[in-house]
Amino acid sequence: MEGLKQVFKFGGASVKDAAGIRNMTELLKGFQETQLIIVVSAMAKTTNSLELVLKYWYEASEECRKVWKEIQNFHLNIVDELFQEKEAREEVYQSLNPIWAAMNEQLSSKPTHFARDYDKMVSFGELLSTKIISHYLNKEGLVVVWKDCRALIATDSTHRNARIEWEATERKMKEALDNTSWFITQGFIGANAEGETTTLGREGSDYTAAAICYALEYDSVTIWKDVPGIKNGDPKVFKDTVLLHQLSYEEAIELAYYGASVIHPKTIQPLQRKSIPLFVKSFIEPQNPGTHIGKDLELTPHIDCFIRKEKQWWLRVSTRDLAFIAEDQLSFIYKIFYDLGIRVNLSSHSAVSSSFCFNGEPQLQVELFKRLEKFFELELIKEAQLYTIRHSRLGSKEKIEGYRKVLHEQMSKDTFQLVVV
Ligand code: ASP
Ligand code: MG
Predict the structure, then answer these.
(1) Pair 386, 421: CB distance under 8 Å
(2) Which of 27, 170, 190, 389 could form a disulfide with 215 if both were Cys (CB 3.0 to 4.6 A apart)?
(3) pTM above 0.70, yes or no
């Protein structure tokens, strides 16, 4: 096959029901000259539902089987809608049976290691979606070969946030994926050297698409979304947002770092290393150009970009005796953050106190206080919000509304940040 080689990623929203899968199929029919690898997430909110199954399973609650049944019915209803003909339908049912059996087997056993159990459980979502969709694409005349991504993405054993082992991944992909047909595979999941299922972190399918493109040196990645591309702010949060036509890898990493949830933050790095362009486009209006992310691309239009991070905690740590907070104390504090898995989004220091803004999680508080209050005076404000404005200019700050009080604000070269409640 000649011409372009591209990786397409479809998220849960694009395949949330039968209509979504039909739309995706029509979209793909327009790319018959292109060599494609198609990466798909779990349908709709299936991953959340699987997390719930896991929770109930751990609690040995009756609810577990109920939610499991709902997931099953949801997928079977989609199959019934897509495959009217009995024989075709039976064939899809058959192909899903091993997945139901594996789920059943897991639920009939005892939980062991939470993160490992988690990865095994949530991976069923992607396995189900790709199986159903690959059958449908084939039925619609698009020849596509289904691949188990656990045979393609090699990772370490950090369950729930696995790191890709690049050499092994490249080798596996080059062996398994030639250019003779289209392939469809799961986002988000991989396997460690022992063959156990791992996952790359929630919303990790973008990263899978980037990894495949990197390993096989394809020409570009396109992430198909229910929005026109990347905007200068989440339209659900900010007024008068505009579409960004293009931006650089660095800008995209900064935006993702501060919490813009348009693409998974790890996605950019492999693409940048090989200067592979990334497109974010609308699956509703696929003819529109969307957003192009690439090497040294000037932010266009050059405009202020807004990000809001919710559920922030603002922790003020001060010395009891007005002693200075010095490096040894800071490294002590940061070590505790590290141990508890706390990621500090912003910090500020004065002579006798330091303040930290981080993603708050209810279960953190007790341990955090236990370890810090022996040495410091602590003041914790929950339910704060962190606003970040990139390329802030006169009037930008005024666009942020609806808070009671500013806890902190700071300005660095290109970035203005505001912690409020
Ligand atoms: N299905 C997974 C999630 O919802 C991965 C993804 O959507 O990228 O987190
Ligand atoms: Mg998803």
Answers:
(1) no
(2) 170
(3) yes
> What count of residues does the chain have?
421
**pLDDT tens digits, 150-197:** 999 999 999 999 999 999 999 999 999 998 899 999 999 999 999 999
CATH architecture of 305-420: 2-Layer Sandwich (3.30)
Closest CA to 356 of 381, 373, 390: 381
Q: Which of 127, 185, 193 is nearest to 163 (CA)?
A: 193
* Domain map (residue ranges) of the chain: 5-226, 305-420
> Helices 114-139 and 18-29: crossing angle, nearest 10°?
60
Ligand 1 centroid distance, CA of 189 (Å): 9
Residues with a CB atom less than 6 Å from ligand 1: 11-12, 41-42, 47, 125, 187-188, 202-205
- What is the CB-side half-sphere exposure of residue 328 using CA atoms within 13 A? 4
Model pLDDT for residues 214-246, shown as the tens digit of each residue: 999 999 999 999 999 999 999 889 999 999 999
CB 200 within 8 A of CB 161: yes
The hierarchical CATH code for the domain 5-226 is 3.40.1160.10
Separation between Cα atoms, residue 280 and residue 10, nearest integer Å: 11
Residue whose CB lies within 8 A of the most ligand 1 atoms, among 8, 129, 161, 203, for a mutation test: 203
Distance of CA 41 to the CA centre of its chain: 10
Give the DSSP H or E segment for 293: strand 291-294
For residue 369, give every residue at least 6 positions away whose Cβ sits within 8 Å of its Cβ, in sequence order, or none.
378, 380
